Task: structure prediction
Amino acid sequence: MQDKQLNKDQIKKVIKLKLERLFGCEIQDATQAQLYQAIALIVRDEIMERRTASRAMRRDSANKKLYYLSAEFLTGRALYNNMVTLVNEKAYFEAFDELGIDKSLIFEQEPEPGLGNGGLGRLAACFLDSLAALHMPATGCTIRYEYGLFRQKIVDGYQVELPDSWLDNGNLWEIPCPDETEEVHFGGRVEEYEEGGETYFRHVDYKTVLAVPYEMPVVGYDSSMVNMLRMWSARSPKKIDMASFNRGQYVQAMEEKELAEVISKVLYPEDNHVEGKELRLKQQYFFSSATVQYAVKDFVKTHGTDFRLFPEKVALHVNDTHPGLAIPELMHILVDDYHLTWEMAEDITRRSFAYTNHTVLQEALERWPEDIMQRLLPRIYMILQEMNRRLCDRLWHVYTGQWERIGRMAIIGYGQVHMANLCVSMCHTVNGVSQIHADILRRDTFRDYCLIDPSRFLGITNGITHRRWLMQANPTLTSLINDAIGEGWKREPERLTELNPFANDASFRTQFDEVKVKNKLRLTDYMQRHQNIILDPDSIFDVQAKRMHEYKRQLMNALSILMQYNRLVEDPKLVLPKRTFIFGAKAAPGFYRAKLIIRLINAIADLVKKHPRASQFINVVFLENYCASAAEVLMPAAEVSEQISTAGKEASGTGNMKFMMNGALTIGTMDGANVEIFEHVGNDNIYIFGLSAEEVEAGYATYRASEIYETNVHIRRAMEQLIDGTLCPDNPRLFQDLYHALLFGDGGGMADPYFVLKDLPDYNRTQQRMLKDYQDRDKWLTMAVKNTANSGYFSSDRTIKEYNDLIWHLTVLDL
Result:
């Protein structure tokens, strides 16, 4: 695509022209925000030219198209990433230098899109990147959240949630498509009618919410392939009730509009009350319905109404259960709008949908109260009832007389709609996101379904886009790799294995270390500018950055740090390598215990900071408002990657892959994708500790946390500090909930269900082994190089190829 690129002089000219036409100013008078807008529009113009160039081929080919439905897409900032995928960042940077433009200040002007939160959304964004890079026609589909999840602020050690107003100044990358607005219906009732001797149903007396689409382009690396992320925004068809307004009832005049548009306000609204549950259900149906309507219309426009072709031309993929209502929505359209028989509609639906599961935690497998589903979505509820009746009838012939088993597998049971059972029963393929995760799905979570047809259950290990997480996030390491093995790895990331011989090259190891030092200095500068926190770049950067949850065991890390603190305080002769522990995590607003762990981490940070001796060796910091842009600075600087979830609980993880790709060494359990990282780097280049998934499962019947507490004096000391005022003298009982959960459990449940105390001794021993290795610089750097060298397998390009070979069967376009 080199012939379509702007050169340095063209870029300089068009920047000046954009500033004149948009703002009536010259470069020396432009603000940073104005410069960002001018540059972003230039890059967007380049992308849309490529989209236009390939549009006719995509349309004329009439090939199968993927609709990838996900409640979140954690895209990250677009400007720098788009320059990388256009393979033109060098020309842009040269133009910036000659015009006196600071590129880092420009990139920071772009707001972080509030479209995602954690690994689920980041995975979806990586998938869109790889789909475009591999020339596969696809559209990502989600909600255009006005305020995202939340912006995290740490105040007095506590997480405070603030609105993430990322759209205040608009979004330069999005394209409104109001002509393609869809109607989504809530409430009302269903009536039966006769036509041509057949009985049909129609939804009437409903309230309408308009789904207005906005699209953001996703450009393929060095390609004219441009796919789209379609974001649906909720709008009321009634702007204002003028009768109420004229009576002076101003709030009532706007009430209907506000109630409709709240659907696309916030990602994952708190659902520990009925109103929250209703809003979440509305959100999920809103974007699922709009997407399926759009997909069907697009199919009819190209192929007509011969729906027997639908599964051959349309692939619908639900990323976790949030978009699961797309399944009965397609049934609704086929049966009610196009009058297909139930049998034909069900066959088409099943052959069109696939489902990716992302969790084995029972509390995370979504269930909706039956009465709420019936009231908000009466026609969809009827369809779910019929699906469930037919499913249970089929299951009866397999598991005759086993009503309890059939009840566990039912779509509707015990007053709830089970979304995972809906997806498993109505999708042609179900996949886990690592091999260990897929094994757990087969033998436990969905065992009864797997016994009927094991061929439907696959394991496809997650991946990350190396274009963002190495080429963009770590340009200095990218340059070093290019010098060593050339640039072929950019298109074929598996060729990073060509770096393996360089692990034994002393000169290369030295350069690799220099890259890490530069990245640590960059993070040091970032933390000082954003939080006024001082880091020591000569210390080990030990990082745990992921969503805050009990099974991810930030609590175990915190207790281990407290134990190290105690050793330093109690032994004045003890000397340890200097280490900076960096945490980055958001806790769900209603997850009290997760928020309390954040408070604990910050209490330990204060405790360490106040001690003159301990603070010489340990520093604990909490990176505020962890997001994709922060990760792009954090991950290249990390030296130790904490992947310490309870074995069998983490489906895959992708942070582990990003840290690995940037040369950090993993300390972790044999959980999720850690298992495959272990297989690719070997036992000598990763630090594995703790129980296996099988041992965890067996431990539910035998483990007693109190035995660890009673027999390990160091753990007992740390535990007592949770409640004796050491950490919070003004409120000694602040962390009593954590203490109680570890030793006694909740409401009669198991104590320490995530085996924190059980794995803690082995975790500490493994930490000591890791510290010893770190001081042997040649050994450590050899291990670090091997991690980067063997990370190519974890590119999302490989993942997408597997999805396509095994599930979607899309035709790769020849562009």
